[in-house]
Design brief:
Length: 446
């Protein structure tokens, strides 16, 4: 059973491609079942964030599994396979494991060490578990990954230098306006990203915040938390007239702010400058809005240009995190190979016992008239022969289990001795952190 990953992120694909392959949260359950039905996929997880779309799977046939994932993405995004392939990356077996470990540690994010990704991975795994589309390898894979993410943050303090998409958006606002006090800010959306943005705005002195969301109750909840004002979604265009800054992070499937709306707003504002930051994927604000005089528009890709004052400290922590990942990779590699090695050793020992028992009974039946002492000596000799004969292959196989070729040596041994190895019902020799973890609690992970 081999773990594989197919995905794209902010480095490999522009936002207009990422928004086509993204999955709104309310569609993930159905998408997981659809994906799992494809050939060769034994367990699957879909990780969809503003900066990445990644599919993790366990498959018994790597080529079949990868082809199935690509077909699923092509059908979902309605993009030609040749076009989509330009943006995709593929990781198989241990590189897939290492990639997820780096993702959950925040080492593969736009902002090094960002904090949100740990909760996002936990949530993606929880949804897959609830949908019943995971399997043994996927479970251990993701439970280990979440342990890695927590360990990296505990031991390196990589997230003690606050930076995230929402944080960076606020940093950009500060670069444009300096002090935020007295500036009128409109937040569109009331989800996690909007809540984090509001938190950073308050921490940086903002005191005039308006929140608008399709669910007015959620808008009121967030507005109350940041001592702001809730605006009904149907009325947010009027609020654009007074706002200095608009930060949009809704979960809408289409643009919620269009050029004609903003042109009318700018006339009523007498072309007073308006800063708009779109951190949603798919985008909330039509890109042509940025061409309107007086309007400055940044989308999520533009945030890369914002200077992170804590970047150097995070890079040092990132180096420490890489060492942790290699340690955890070694543990996962041993476990994964044990899926093949341990049952094979048990089957080999069982075969040796079968042969010994048959030959002993056959020989003792022919000899007859042996004393108890003589029979004991013969049985002891048979035990010694079998044990000594199997000792070296078993010892060597255990050593090979710690290498990347462990499962290959195991398969050779199974073929040489014609062993019938039953698949284990339970996870054997788990990473020590996972043994006591059980079902992941995504709320703690966040």
């Amino acid at each position: 059973m081999f773990p594989v990953t197919v995905g794209l992120n902010h480095r490999t694909a522009p936002v207009e491609i990422r928004e086509k392959v993204s999955f709104p949260h309310y569609t993930i359950g159905a998408a997981l079942h659809e994906l799992k039905a494809y050939s060769g996929l034994e367990g699957v997880v879909i990780l969809s964030t503003c900066n990445r779309l990644e599919i993790y799977a366990a498959t018994t046939d790597v080529e079949t599994g990868l082809n199935s994932i690509k077909k699923f993405l092509v059908n979902h995004a309605q993009i030609e396979e040749q076009e989509l392939s330009k943006y995709l990356y593929v990781h198989t077996l241990y590189e897939a494991v290492r990639h997820l470990f780096r993702v959950v540690a925040g080492l593969d994010s736009m902002i090094l060490g960002e904090t949100q990704i740990l909760g996002q991975v936990a949530n993606a795994y929880e949804k897959a578990s609830q949908a019943g589309v995971t399997n043994k390898v996927i479970n251990v894979f993701f439970q280990n990954a979440l342990t890695v993410g927590k360990r990296v943050r505990t031991e390196t303090q990589i997230d003690q230098h606050p930076t995230s998409i929402s944080y960076t958006a606020v940093e950009l606002v500060k670069q444009v306006f300096g002090e935020l006090q007295g500036r009128s800010i409109l937040i569109l959306g009331a989800g996690e990203m909007s809540a984090l943005t509001a938190k950073h705005l308050l921490a940086n002195g903002a005191n005039t915040v308006m929140v608008s969301n399709r669910s007015y109750d959620r808008a009121k909840t967030l507005a109350s938390a940041c001592h702001g004002k809730a605006i009904r979604f149907a009325d947010f265009e009027e609020s654009l007239i007074d706002a200095d800054i608009v930060i949009s992070a809704t979960a809408a499937a289409n643009f919620v702010i269009n050029p004609d709306q903003v042109r009318n707003v700018m006339i009523k504002r007498n072309n007073r400058p308006l800063l708009m930051i779109d951190i949603a994927v798919p985008r909330d604000i039509h890109p042509e809005v940025g061409e309107i005089p007086g309007v400055t528009l940044y989308d999520i890709d533009d945030l890369r240009g914002v200077i992170d004052a804590h970047q150097h400290a995070r890079e040092i922590a990132g180096q420490q995190a890489e060492h942790i990942i290699e340690e955890e990779m070694s543990q996962f590699l041993k476990w994964h190979n044990s899926l093949y090695v341990v049952p094979t050793i048990v089957a080999l020992q069982h075969r040796g016992e079968e042969i010994k028992a048959y030959q002993l009974e056959h020989a003792l039946g022919k000899l007859g008239g042996l004393t108890a002492k003589q029979e004991k000596i013969i049985r002891s000799m048979a035990n010694s022969i079998v044990n000594q004969l199997l000792h070296e292959p078993i010892t060597n196989l255990k050593e090979f289990a710690t290498t990347k070729q462990g499962h290959l040596y195991t398969e050779i041994l199974q073929n040489l001795f014609s062993l019938e190895v039953a698949e284990e019902e339970t996870v054997h020799s788990l990473h020590p952190h996972v043994q006591n973890q059980g079902n992941v609690d995504s709320r703690r992970a966040k």
